[in-house]
Amino acid sequence: MAEKPASLSSFLFATSLLLTLISASLASPTPSSLYGTLLHCLSHSTNSSTLANNNIVFDRTNASFPTLLQNYIRNARWNTSTTTKPLIIITPLQESQVQAAVICAKSIGIQIRIRSGGHDYEGLSYVSKQPFIVLDMPNLRQITVDISKEVATVQAGATLGELYYNIWKNNKVHGFPAGLCTTIGVGGHISGGGYGSMLRKYGLSVDNVIEAKIVDLKGRILDRKSMGEDLFWAIRGGGGASFGVILSYTVKLVSILETVTVFNVERSLEENAIDLAVEWQQVAPTIDDRFFISLHFSPSGSDENKTVKASVTALFLGGADEAVSILRKEFPILGIGKENCTEMSWIEAMIWNPDDPKIGVKPEEILLSRHLNSAVFLKRKSDYVQVPISKEGLEGISKKIMAGTVVLGFNPYGGKMAEIPADATAFPHRAGNLFKIQYTVNWDDPSPAAAQKFVNEARSLYSYMTPFVSKNPRSAFLNYRDIDIGINTFGKDSYEQGKVYGAKYFNVNFERLVKIKTAVDPDNFFRNEQSIPILPSKS
Ligand SMILES: Cc1cc2nc3c(=O)[nH]c(=O)nc-3n(C[C@H](O)[C@H](O)[C@H](O)COP(=O)(O)OP(=O)(O)OC[C@H]3O[C@@H](n4cnc5c(N)ncnc54)[C@H](O)[C@@H]3O)c2cc1C
Ligand SMILES: *[C@@H]1O[C@H](CO)[C@@H](O)[C@H](O)[C@H]1NC(C)=O
Ligand SMILES: *[C@@H]1O[C@H](CO)[C@@H](O)[C@H](O)[C@H]1NC(C)=O
Ligand SMILES: *[C@@H]1O[C@H](CO)[C@@H](O)[C@H](O)[C@H]1NC(C)=O
Ligand SMILES: *[C@@H]1O[C@H](CO)[C@@H](O)[C@H](O)[C@H]1NC(C)=O
Ligand SMILES: *[C@@H]1O[C@H](CO)[C@@H](O)[C@H](O)[C@H]1NC(C)=O
């Protein structure tokens, strides 16, 4: 294997021979031959020759390989010795290197997985059963903010924290509606929808995207105009990984006031948590859309005296006096006063955590920290609730929560979410949904038995929730990746398999996504266990 070829011509000869051999036999390339073949192909597919040997290709023998891989693993379950590893990690520094990587992976016939922030709960961006390459995007993280036009262009490998920081640094009265975890990558987050605490006022991230750049199957860079409105629609909620490699999104910034208000209120079962939850279901999805009031049910107390804690956490895009006067009228059971509220800037609200006040820490320190190589063991699932759950129903759910470890988070919809038609973007869960549920369970015991126990617990609660949540299909949120709802094995019935999870993630938008997928990637090169399938006649 000629990593640093002494003689370029003999190296080129050897690798082109390999390429010929591989394409002739269609055999899965062995790791060492793959490295050489890929390097050779990249140097021929990249316009500027200086890019070719720019140290962006790492094979498994490379000392940096484990660190590179682990830096963006965010679920420790996919960081074991038995987890399948990529054969190669490519870390593009320039967009042309992404083009070359796609062209070469396709010509060699090896799968790629695209990773921006690595937060995929099932690790689909860096784990595959097939031999594969990881295209690792974190170096492509440029952000440009144009306040006069109220737009920002952000590369896929940037984090949400970096995006928020760059907006805030420019100006204090603009923000962007996206998730609350600052290390999430833009590439996966926005392509999958992207929700955060401004969604009732401004919708999802995808509702504020005005332009995108993607590298397609042929290695071309397409913008909104050249990709066309179909593909541009698909990569706003349909996920990026089925269609190509997203290089960047251009987003419309939204107006925010210099002061917003947050609060957190906790009640145990003994303090009427259930009555609070009954009222929350009426109020949170219908109140003034400047409010985002989430509710979390978690097991609490000691073994001898277990209870369930209901935590109400809120952001109000306005001052505390107004928040309190609205809440006293509309949500009296909350019993909130001004003393329970904290006024702060929007940027502080984006990093505010009532359990960890981070006193004395500068916002930028949190926003810009990537927390490389840190992960817990976790499982997540999602549901949508369309009919309020009765008091008896909530009592049963709380007993189930009390006996276990899973936390249920209720995120209210309504407001702007209910005004946007279900087919305006590929993200379909709009009017008619009162709130989304997230099932959360984290653990730190690395044993397979522990994983089995906690995953089973989440599944059992999910099964218990069946009567209370959406049906036909039982909807799910793509960004809360959950392979329990169906996977594709790409056999003869790949379309039917795809429809199982596809109908849950995309509801009425599934068929259009399939058509677009079939048109832009008829060979199904861009795929994973839950990608959009192609039409059966083309399979
Ligand atoms: C701690 C934590 C908090 C979260 N909070 C929220 C939240 O508040 N709101 C919310 O909506 N979601 C939230 N999520 C879910 C998160 O939005 C999704 O996991 C999202 O897909 C992560 O994007 P990523 O780039 O970090 O992930 P990755 O694992 O890199 O990618 C996720 C998926 O997108 C694909 N992909 C990534 N980059 C590209 C690209 N450039 N082009 C094409 N395809 C690409 C991957 O192949 C994979 O299929 C949270 C997740 C975690 C772990
Ligand atoms: C690891 O890979 C990088 C990037 O290709 C390269 O620069 C470096 O020399 C490799 N290190 C070793 C020890 O092979
Ligand atoms: C290289 O440049 C040519 C001409 O400028 C362009 O058509 C082609 O798409 C480029 N290829 C890559 C991989 O950048
Ligand atoms: C049990 O916990 C609840 C909630 O924390 C508390 O109100 C109650 O007094 C406790 N009961 C006993 C017997 O400790
Ligand atoms: C509001 O704050 C007061 C004073 O700290 C406290 O007694 C009260 O319990 C709080 N109310 C709520 C709803 O948390
Ligand atoms: C992955 O496991 C290694 C030990 O094998 C550990 O050093 C590293 O911190 C872990 N990283 C993550 C993200 O879990």
Automatic annotation (TrEMBL):
UniProt keyword Signal present: yes
Cofactor(s) needed by this chain: FAD
Record-linked PROSITE patterns: FAD_PCMH
Pfam families: BBE (PF08031), FAD_binding_4 (PF01565)
Keywords assigned: FAD, Flavoprotein, Glycoprotein, Signal
InterPro entries named in the record: BBE, FAD-bd_PCMH, FAD-bd_PCMH-like_sf, FAD-bd_PCMH_sub1, FAD-bd_PCMH_sub2, Oxid_FAD_bind_N
Signal peptide: 1-27
FAD-binding PCMH-type domain location: 82-256
Record-stated family: Belongs to the oxygen-dependent FAD-linked oxidoreductase family.
Protein's name in the database: FAD-binding PCMH-type domain-containing protein
